[in-house]
TrEMBL record:
It holds the Pfam family Cupin_2. It comes from the Bacteria. This is Cupin. Residues 41-106 form the Cupin type-2 domain. InterPro entries: Cupin_2 (IPR013096), RmlC-like_jellyroll (IPR014710), RmlC_Cupin_sf (IPR011051). Coiled coil: none annotated. It comes from Geotalea uraniireducens.
């Protein structure tokens, strides 16, 4: 575990409450950081995002609050709370806050 993630073990929690919104910023909180993968919560202020990049592993993104635009290989899709998308390895992708939103990013390494 990373940070104070150990305090979460064995407790029922509400994901959306684990990371706060911050005006004009992207905030992240790592819940698990292991050799095999990571779980990271993010909050994005409206208009904020992650610029286009690639990753060597598939990435699972679940929106837990608000709405986001996820762009994969130039194709944009809008996601709202409760929806998820899998971003394939080695393909360019980006994330943008249509409105403020929170997401869980799960990265499993091979």
């Amino acid at each position: 575990m990373s940070g104070n993630g150990e305090t979460l073990i064995g407790k029922a929690v509400t994901m959306a409450e684990l990371v706060a919104y911050q005006e004009g910023a992207v905030v992240s909180r790592t819940l698990i950081d292991k050799k095999v993968g990571t779980l990271t919560l993010f909050s994005f202020a409206a208009g904020q995002g992650l610029s286009e990049h690639t990753a060597p592993y598939d990435a699972f993104v679940q929106v837990i609050d608000g709405a986001a635009e996820v762009i994969i290989d130039g194709a944009a899709q809008r996601l709202t709370a409760g929806q998820f998308i899998i971003m394939p390895a080695n393909r360019p992708h980006a994330v943008r806050a249509v409105q403020r939103f929170k997401m869980l990013l799960v990265m499993i390494r091979e």
